[in-house]
Amino acid sequence: MHGDLGMVSDDDLLIVISHSGRTKELQVFCDAVKCKKVLITKFRIGILPHIKADHTITYNADEPQYSTLPRQIPFVSSVVVMGIVSGVVAEVASQLQLTEEDYSKLHPDGDFGKQLTKCMDVCRPIHLVTRDKLIIAAADTITTSGSGCVGVTEDLSSKKLIGIVTDGDIRRSMNRKADYVNEIMTTEPVVIRDTEYVYKARDLMTSRKISEIPVIDSNGNPVGLISLKDI
Q: Does residue 162 share a domain with residue 77?
């Protein structure tokens, strides 16, 4: 505890949660910390003469009673504490106007941090074929790339995505007389911008019941592929 207190600076904010706010050890603790303090208690009467806090907050919540504990033994329910802390965090985040990008920079790891990564940072290369290619050529490209689809462009000079061909499209083409990519490709495919967050790509794929979508830039040019297994 001594080492932790030494790390507290004047710019920090200490949030103290206590049942009464009148215990001696709490008073010693708060006096030792030289920063702004917010004391959150259930009972406000008698707090200020004992604890020097910059602000005091009271809560009114019924705490569970356990048959094995006498009612005279005070305690702060962990559920109540979590509720208070969640409310404080939400209010602070609102006051600071924190954005998703702020959170992703502060917490790059973990499940939440990864979901706030930009699609451009996690997408895989996308392989392209032109619309006049034979279907067998698209099938070979899908096989060698290890992806479930290829992007389709108008010609070799154009990079704009005009469609995709999936392995499912190729399988279904076996039951019809089709030879070229433009006969089986999906026009206006589901795509996502490279600047969008990963969680939006996940939600989009889940809602559309697809497992892989192209990632495009502001000009509609493909920059990669992202799949559910990538995220």
A: no
